[in-house]
Amino acid sequence: ADHLVLTEVLSKVLGREGILVGDSAMSCYYGALSNTPAYRPRSFLYPTGLGTLGYGLPAAVGAKLARPGAPVVALHGDGGLMFTVQELAAAAQLRLPLPVIVTDNGGYGEIRNEMAERGDPVHAVGLGAVDFPATARALGCHGLSAEDGDTLAHALEQALVADRPTLIHLPEYAAR
């Protein structure tokens, strides 16, 4: 899935009542910030400064607790999720029906791109092979992967009514 497909699916599934909580991630600042409508105040929560990796998941837990009847989705990059992934355990204990989307570009993609653009040696920006769905399951959540917009939409619809959080991994997600 690319940015446009991702934001179209999010807009459709969340509707006018939903809350999207974004992390400092390429999928947010190249996608959700410009392509996802916010129909009311506090319907798009996002850290305003760069470098605030890890904000999305704990903020989404707070949003879901504050508005339990509203659909809430957390949107993370793979690098940022590694800062607060343990909060999946807290969300599972609370049995929150909270979808957590993780866009996977193999590490800290924005930093990697900036290093390459400057001609710097690109190093220490990869995460290696993290099995995000298995990590979610180990922390008491559902965990699965989605390959395209249709499977993502279906996974989100199921996750919004699940008995616990669902991590939805978008493998090989690339900025387009």
TrEMBL record:
Keywords: Thiamine pyrophosphate. InterPro entries: THDP-binding, TPP-bd_CS, TPP_enz, TPP_enzyme_TPP-bd. The keyword Kinase does not apply. Transmembrane segments: none annotated. PROSITE patterns: TPP_ENZYMES. Gene3D superfamilies: 3.40.50.970. Residues 34-169 form the Thiamine pyrophosphate enzyme TPP-binding domain. One of its GO terms (molecular function) is thiamine pyrophosphate binding. PANTHER family: THIAMINE PYROPHOSPHATE ENZYMES (PTHR18968). Belongs to the TPP enzyme family. This is Acetolactate synthase. It comes from Streptomyces parvus. The lineage of its organism: Bacteria, Bacillati, Actinomycetota, Actinomycetes, Kitasatosporales.
